[in-house]
Amino acid sequence: MSTLFRIILQRLLLGLLTLLIVSIVIFAAVNMLPGDFAEAVLGQGATEEAVTAIRRDLGLDQPPVTRYLEWLGGALQGDLGTSFAKANFASFVGADAGSGLDTVAAQIAPRFANTLFLAGVSAAIAVPVSLILGVLAALYRNTLFDKATNIFTLSAISSPEFFLAYILILFLAVLNPVLPSLSNIYQGMSFAERLDRTLLPALTLTLVVTAHMMRMTRAAIINLLASPYIEMARLKGLSPLRVIVVHALPNALAPIITVIALNLAYLITGVVVVEVVFVYPGIGQLFVDSVKIRDIPVVQASCLIFAGAYILLNLVADIMSILSNPRLRHPK
Amino acid sequence: MIIPLALALGLLVAPLVRWSGRRLSGDAPYWRDMPYGAAYGYVLAALALAGSAWLYFVNGNVFFRWGVQGFIAFAIAAYLFRLAGRHIGTGWSRRQFRKMPLTASFGILTILVYAVVAIFAQWLAPYGQEEILARANLVPGGDPALGGDPGFPLGTDQIGRDILSRLIYGAQNTVGIAFATTCLAFLLGGTLGFLAATLGGWLDQLLSRLMDVLMAIPALIFALLLMTIASAWAGSERGLLTLYMVVIIAVIDSTRVFRLSRAVGLNIVVMDYIEAARLRGEGLRYLVFREILPNATAPLLAEFGLRFCFVFLTIASLSFLGVGIQPPLADWGTMVRDLSQFINYAAFVPLAASVPLLAAGAIALLTVAVNFVVDWMLHRSSGLKE
Predict the structure, then answer these.
(1) Which end is more exposed in chain A, N or C (fewer Cβ atoms within 10 Å of the end residue's Cβ)?
(2) Minimal Cα distance from B358: which residue of A?
(3) Same domain, A145 and A90
(4) What is the number of domains present in chain A?
């Protein structure tokens, strides 16, 4: 048990180290931006004193290492800095200094919750559906059903998300108005209403990830079917369904869990395009908008959150596969 | 409402079908051993077919009909192409076509068509990609009574550029840029990967850790972050921004190529013939190009197909988000974004709504085709038969 604990601790530390290095990469990349924020915001009014004042207010006059450490320290305490989006000349000078300066955390927090909701709904649909379909495809392998699902899932994986999204909008929102095509979500909505608005983007994401998970489930099960113990189970006269569900599936669980975790990571990070199509107020849309107006603190913070979620879920996949496979627990 | 009812109905009908099958066939083994699930599956398939036929002939919309017609047309084209391939060409190519599934021949046909359109876009397109013509927002179809023009079979866009020409040029720009990016990524990732595998030691460690860090950031997010910076560097020079995008995506994707080529290279480096070549005193260049590369072609070729799909989709997504290929270059992702609002008129003017779907479908069709071909190649080389 202690070795297991040690391995998990090791992985956790490794993940933390990765996150730290990633934050350095993000910070360094952002610092390659040419020009000066203070001058850009002031425009015509960029006098010597005003520029210095803003630089001092935002801490831009410090050397990069100090700024990085301050940013990191703030991020650890949940303070991700101040958004530049609504900053202007008046924010820094005169009586209403500080107006129009939104904190990044206040901008991101509700949107991050929305994105998690969307990812949660998609996962709740996608995981059971893909497991059942994967088992069925393995059970009826090389039949017409298997070939049809193969073609369908391959097409779904390789289509761009916006194509699937517009097809779904066309059939489920425009031609047969079942679901709303725009996800207008606000505070204080009832759960059912919210689910209704979220369902169409969630269905799009489900299509994308289900295909991948289903194919991996099928491949993992079929890989095992040649092993002697499956042969034995067959010779005992067990039904094909029982052979697959009771004998093959538990041993195929490790790769399946890995794929599920990786797809959940994809759900959190890959939502960008889907959120833009459906105007879903999530973190992905905020990220794209900030990229367009170069709102650096928000871009930096969203990047860090995305990378963190990605690393965390990869870590979970890693640990789960170690837990489910005794051979990995005792490396030679 | 109808779908759950049909599912429940199937549950009742399935044993009936199995029972009647047993009676009619005199208890043939096929019917005798049929599990309940299989019978249910057959019933569901029959119901789905009936439902589609009902949608197609009685109460469907025009998009469903187009979809079905397109599917059948593609299937027939793929079948004819395979038939032609079996009788024309060298002995080797005819042998390949004989064992080919229909999906793979469809993929090869589609890739060929795209290549031809992309190479000869200048001669195929009726107008230039930047040419602004007299009338904007012409409806596709070319019927003057509905607001079209026979000169513009797919209509014109919001500032009066011919959509058909832009679709054709889009093949050149989008596919061409994606292809160049993939080649660059392979040049970079492949070289570094093989170097790391052959030399080993601290170089291998350094490169591997560097790639690990780059891979820890999700690809699309990292690309968007770097594109922010690139757009600040490029300023108003749009051609330069496209060039930056090629480099950025090539670097991000080269990490995945590095992983694969290093793994493949490591497996080859321990072979006896490499040992022999080393003892002969061959240099590094001979080792990489004459010994390792020829033995790593098959997995790298399959990876090239998949990587191309990823790069192509990333570029399309970036363009769709507005930070990818810049106007005035025609590009499918940008076209989808610009024309997407027409989908809302699908119930009244189906032709107008079809244009953004056509651009998005052009992207999807190529990636699906490449995936079909890669799937077939992998299946053939892996020998996964069951």
Answers:
(1) C
(2) A163
(3) no
(4) 2
- Separation between Cα atoms, residue A52 and residue A36, nearest integer Å: 11
Residues A156 and A263 in one domain: yes
Write out the residue range of the structural domain in which residue A50 sits. 1-102+297-332
Q: Look up the pTM and report it.
A: 0.85
Measured distance CA(B333)–CA(A66) in Å, rounded: 41
> What are chain B's domains?
163-382 (1.10.3720.10)
**Nearest alpha carbon to residue A209 among A254, A274, A276:** A274
CA dihedral A265, A31, A75, A103 (to 10 degrees): -100
**Contact indicator for B162, B131 with CB cutoff of 8 Å:** yes
What ipTM score was computed for the predicted complex, to two decimals?
0.84
Q: What is the pLDDT of residue B382?
A: 65
Q: Are residues A139 and A246 in the same domain?
A: yes
Same domain, A120 and A263: yes
Q: Which of B212, B226, B360 sits opposite A163 (nearest CB)?
A: B360
Amino acid (1-letter code) at residue B82: R
Contact B213 A25 (CB under 8 A): yes
pLDDT at B386: 38
Contact A180, A196 (CB under 8 A): yes
Reduced to 3 states (helix: H, G, I; strand: E, B; else coil), residue B140 is: coil
On whether both A64 and A142 belong to a single domain, the answer is: no
Same domain, A138 and A251: yes
Beta carbons within 8 Å of B219's beta carbon, 6+ residues apart: B252, B253, B310, B314
Nearest to B190 by CA among B263, B118, B110: B263
DSSP-derived secondary structure letter, A88: -
Please measure the distance between the N-terminal and C-terminal CA atoms of chain A and give it in whole angstroms: 17
Nearest C-alpha of chain B: how many angstroms from A304? Answer: 9
Chain A's closest residue to B310, CA to CA, is A158
Contact B174, B180 (CB under 8 A): no
Main-chain phi, psi angles of B357, to 5 degrees: -65, -35
Q: Which of residues 248-307 of B touch A (CB under 8 A)?
A: none
Phi, psi of B156 (to 5 degrees): -125, 160
* Same domain for A48 and A128: no
Contact B356 A166 (CB under 8 A): yes
- Whether residue B357 lies within 8 A of chain A, CB to CB, comes out as yes
Q: How many Å lie between the alpha carbon of A224 and the closest alpha carbon of chain B? A: 11
Based on the domain organization, do A192 and A212 belong to the same domain? yes
Euclidean distance between CA atoms B155 and B163, whole angstroms: 6
**Separation CA B97–CA B109 (nearest Å):** 12
CATH classification of the domain holding A205: 1.10.3720.10
User: Is pLDDT above 60 for B72?
Assistant: yes
pLDDT digit string, tens, across residues B222-261: 888 888 788 777 777 777 888 888 999 999 999 999 988 9
* Cβ neighbours of residue B55 closer than 8 Å, sequence gap 6 or more: B64
Which residues on adjacent β-strands are paired with residue A103? A82
